[in-house]
Amino acid sequence: MRKRIKKYLLLVSGLLFLALGIIGTVLPILPTTPFLILALACFANSSPRFHQMLLNNRWFGAALQQWEESRSISRASKVKAMLMVVLTFSVSIGVLHGKLPLQLMLLTLGCVLLVFMWRLKEAESLPARVKK
């Protein structure tokens, strides 16, 4: 009984994280990749079918495979993600012209996110399953 409850909780959590990751593709303040990694971990323990669907996804499957195999991301992905953070946070800070507390909050959040991303391990090449 306990295993079944755990499986359903992980499945629901995985679906929630997947939804947040998808929403994060259009909202600059919500990160996509960490939510997809959390969804991948939840599905690994609850739904092999959803786990494989994420790993085989044409948009972010390669990056998730790389994360699952080596706990790293490619330098190109890292640079692109950091540039997107700078761009979207700059636009958001510009839109909030005259609201200094909110601008400072976004600046701080953006800097924390950049430091976190900077510290991620970089991979030299794509994982074996991704190479063709």
Low-confidence stretches: none
Structural class designation: mainly alpha
Tally of discrete structural domains: 2
**Helix share of residues?**
over 70%
Q: What gap, in angstroms, lies between the N and C termini? A: 43 Å
- Quick check: average pLDDT? 87
How many extended strands? Answer: 2
Gross geometry? globular
Strand order of the largest sheet: 1-2
Care to give the gist of this entry?
The protein is mainly α. It contains six helices and two strands.
What features would you highlight for this structure?
single chain; mainly alpha; 2 domains; two-stranded parallel sheet; 70% helix
Q: Can you walk through the features of this model?
A:
This protein has 132 residues and is mainly α. The chain has 2 domains: 1-71; 74-126. Helix content is 70%, strand content 3%. It is built from 6 helices and 2 strands. It has helices spanning 2-24, 33-44, 48-55, 61-70, 75-95, 100-118; strands at 73-74, 122-123. The longest helix is centred in the first third of the chain and has 23 residues, at 2-24. The radius of gyration is 17 Å and the shape is globular. The termini are far apart.
